């Protein structure tokens, strides 16, 4: 993959910008940036691409413990599909609506599924292996901000507590689902390459790609996960 690098020098400070998909350094802060523009099975999507940015959010000190986050910011087309009837917050079955989905996995096959929609609903599931649910994470609360922009774009900012990520997380995938009935579309950052697969299945971690945690997260990542008394039980119980 060809990655173009542009370096600007101004008043002795260097700013490096890398094109999608990869490391991006902006104003001294490192983030990983990606562009989702393919269908689940690898065809070029006819829709506008989604842009995704990951960054590390420093510790938030609570009275009894500390929290740190993987901050996700994405901008994607807003399709204005009907929202769930449930109140905002944790919503089972959210994959049946307009959603962006993020899956983070480790080498052992454990993974977390995080689903977000434009109306303030979310869903988090933790799995020990392929569709082997470990915890439905119904007590998880996410700091989520949605904006519908004038050009029919949905901009979302969400902070994912590091404790939700499986230990030694090293790969991920992202998906976009929208449309109704026969117009339903399933799109992926890293598509399935299994030509025998006839339907989308986003739980296949063998199609996930490397997550560059050494650039994104601090060296004491594992300790920071354990410091989160609210959610560390998900992977340590």
UniProtKB/TrEMBL annotation:
Superkingdom per UniProt: Eukaryota
Protein name: Carb-bd_dom_fam9 domain-containing protein
Lineage: Eukaryota, Metazoa, Ecdysozoa, Nematoda, Chromadorea
């Amino acid at each position: 993959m060809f990655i173009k690098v542009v370096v600007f020098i101004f008043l002795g400070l260097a700013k490096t910008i890398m094109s999608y998909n990869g490391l991006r350094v902006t104003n001294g802060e490192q983030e990983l940036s990606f562009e989702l523009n393919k269908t689940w099975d690898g065809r070029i999507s006819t829709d506008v691409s989604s842009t995704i940015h990951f960054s590390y959010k420093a510790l938030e000190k609570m009275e009894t413990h500390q929290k740190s986050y993987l901050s996700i910011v994405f901008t994607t087309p807003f399709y204005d599909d009907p929202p769930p009837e449930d109140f905002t917050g944790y919503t089972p079955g959210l994959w049946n609506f307009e959603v962006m989905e993020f899956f983070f996995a480790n080498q052992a096959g454990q993974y977390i599924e995080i689903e977000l929609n434009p109306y303030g609903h979310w869903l988090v599931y933790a799995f020990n292996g392929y569709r082997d649910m470990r915890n439905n994470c119904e007590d998880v609360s996410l700091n989520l901000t949605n904006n519908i922009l004038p050009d029919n774009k949905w901009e979302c900012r969400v902070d994912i507590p590091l404790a939700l990520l499986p230990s030694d997380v090293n790969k991920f995938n992202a998906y976009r689902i929208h449309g109704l009935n026969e117009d339903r579309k399933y799109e992926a950052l890293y598509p399935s390459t299994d030509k025998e697969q006839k339907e989308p299945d986003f739980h296949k971690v063998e199609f996930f790609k490397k997550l560059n945690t050494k650039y994104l997260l601090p060296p004491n990542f594992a300790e920071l996960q354990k410091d989160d008394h609210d959610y560390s039980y998900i992977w340590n119980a």
